[in-house]
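Standup notes
- DV: blocked on the single-chain target, sequence here:
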Amino acid sequence: MSTFNKEDILTKLGGQSRFCWQAPSNIAFVKYWGKVDFQLPTNASVSMTLKNCHTTCELSVSVNSKQDVTLLFEGQKDTKFEAKLVKHIERVSSDYPILKEFSYRFMTSNTFPHSAGIASSASSMAAINLCMTELLLKLGQLSEDQFFTVASRLARMGSGSASRSLFGQYVDWGKTTKEYGTQVKDIHPDFQKVGDAVLIVDSSEKEVSSSQGHKLMMEHPYKDFRFQQADAKCNEMISILQSGDWDKFIPLLESEALELHGLMMSGREWFVLMKPNTLMIIDKLKKWRKESGVRIGFTLDAGPNVHLIYHMDDKQKVHEFIAKDLLGYLENQRWIDDEIGNGPLRGEIK
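- DV (later): unblocked, structure below
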């Protein structure tokens, strides 16, 4: 039997039953790889928030003694993600029992194609949990100043990297606290103008999911050294972002990306997510950077697609390089033009 009064709930909502948020994806410069317990990371990570690649979520709620959860992704029912969302709401409801009093209808859409080297689970879970957190705020379950911290914590419970999509520019997770992401302060002006060209090498489903990869990392012979090394790299990366040193940034960015994939390939149950064209792009980039002197490096997510990270002053040169030298290595010549972003936005309810 419910311990909450329906009339009290409706009074607190004040007639509002719909919530809408837009949340960005992010690209990790120091990677989160390995987790324990309740989506808690085994090492610290730091990421750049993106601007153009984002998810919009509109949530409609109704007070209902029998909870029901529906998810529509771009107008179509997504039963796989819906099942994940049901479990997520059950977990969140253990902290906030009042959430058991509602039925939920989520409508989400992305500005980027699925499996394009962009963390769709990060932006999706961030947008979904921003809506949930606004509902909790209306219900008096938290204060305004707790809003983004709570949203980050709830998002983390659904997808670890989502905890970093709640803030703008650069975010650490696991250095300050493992519970939620924290925005990195005092960023040098040279790292406030950064582009990300996402080169789509292969958009097919990965043979090993990130969740499986995290699990395998916990059995890796080098895991203890990796976790220690990643924490040190996170501190170093934050220091570089604050000092503005691109000469130190590029080697750290690239070695970290290759270390992630090296770990995948050196475990007892090894796997390879890079493709031949991934390596061709990296080789082309290295040669062009030496010839041009452009401030540009690469990173990889847990997949074959390449993120070119560059100073926005060189945007035209980078775009010309992609058009001239790289399109032949891309799936259907597709790539996404993105850049550093300022974090989530409250959306308009249609």
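- Follow-up: The longest strand covers residues 45-63.
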